[in-house]
Q: What sequence folds into this?
């Protein structure tokens, strides 16, 4: 991108309903030059603009190998996202980015990877899971641990089913409040760690509710995984997205440019302190 705040027109080329209130949109930049130059890493995000309504940060879930096909998954949270989920194929929207630091894929190469997600917050890890599957031989065993409150909260159900069929891949699911349709574990996501057999040299990547991540960090540490090998994707309200406005600042850290993916030691001091 030429400047960090340049806004580019992009056309919606595909729209998918993932769950109630959650839609995925595939876009293509209108300008072929922008399409050609746009590169990103899994874990980075874009600012998506609904013309005349507002702009919000949304993770990129598509594969960086094909930046001409840019995908985002949006859950209705409030004013702007409610308008966005009304977008139709053919509509033109504004995109600026990519912003922030992505997942540590270079240091994860050759090692086992543990992905922990919870609740509805798994968009940032979908991109990294897809990335690893497309380059499967470069990574060790992939463990995907996902916890939901109720079976209805399980997004991407068919993707979890597809993921578990891959070689050297284990998928562990649990629900706090199961119903008769639920065939997996019952209880909180940390119960899944009983089943997890993993090398202490693994790299862990997680996103979701902060209480879940705190408990997952304790479980990962008990498995011998170093704090430096645990990475979290964190969300804060954002405006500029490139370290100018201070909106996302926490101590010396700007979540937009130093994150949203952090190594645990970077945020340990503040992580989970209520009110922050
Ligand atoms: C780096 C990053 C990546 C994100 N990726 C995705 C994604 O892939 N898909 C997705 O659906 N959402 C994602 N989000 C969250 C999304 O940006 C917010 O849901 C959105 O900004 C809400 O805007 P709104 O105008 O619809 O709601 P508003 O009317 O502004 O807010 C609704 C409620 O959500 C709260 N809120 C707003 N933004 C945030 C935030 N960032 N963190 C916590 N609470 C917030 C508000 O305080 C309010 O209580 C991401 C956020 C960040 C920071
Ligand atoms: S959003 Fe402006 S400094 Fe991070």
A:
């Amino acid at each position: 991108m030429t400047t960090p705040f340049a806004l580019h027109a992009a056309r919606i080329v595909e729209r998918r309903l993932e769950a109630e209130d959650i839609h995925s949109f595939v876009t293509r930049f209108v300008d072929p030059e922008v399409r050609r130059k746009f590169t990103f890493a899994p874990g980075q995000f874009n600012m998506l603009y609904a013309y005349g309504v507002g702009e919000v940060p949304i993770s990129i879930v598509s594969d960086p190998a094909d930046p001409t096909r840019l995908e985002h998954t949006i859950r209705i949270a409030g004013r702007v996202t409610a308008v966005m989920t009304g977008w139709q194929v053919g509509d033109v929207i504004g995109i600026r980015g990519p912003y922030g630091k992505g997942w540590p894929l270079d240091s994860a190469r050759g090692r086992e990877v543990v992905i922990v997600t919870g609740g509805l917050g798994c968009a940032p890890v979908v991109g990294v899971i897809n990335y690893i599957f497309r380059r499967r031989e470069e990574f060790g065993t992939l463990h995907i641990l996902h916890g939901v409150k109720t079976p209805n909260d399980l997004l991407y159900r068919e993707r979890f089913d597809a993921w578990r069929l891959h070689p050297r891949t284990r998928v562990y699911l649990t629900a706090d409040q199961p119903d008769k349709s639920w065939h997996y574990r019952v209880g909180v996501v940390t119960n899944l760690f009983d089943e997890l057999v993993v090398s202490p040299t693994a790299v862990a990547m997680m996103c979701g509710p902060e209480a879940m991540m705190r408990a997952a960090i304790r479980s990962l540490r008990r498995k011998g995984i170093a704090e430096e090998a645990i990475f979290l994707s964190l969300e804060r309200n954002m405006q500029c997205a490139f370290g100018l406005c201070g909106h996302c600042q926490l101590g010396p850290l700007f979540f937009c440019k130093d994150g949203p993916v952090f190594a645990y030691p970077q945020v340990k001091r503040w992580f989970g302190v209520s009110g922050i």
Remarks:
- The helical segments are 32-37, 79-84, 105-108, 123-134, 157-163, 210-222, 264-267.
- The first helix runs from residue 32 to 37.
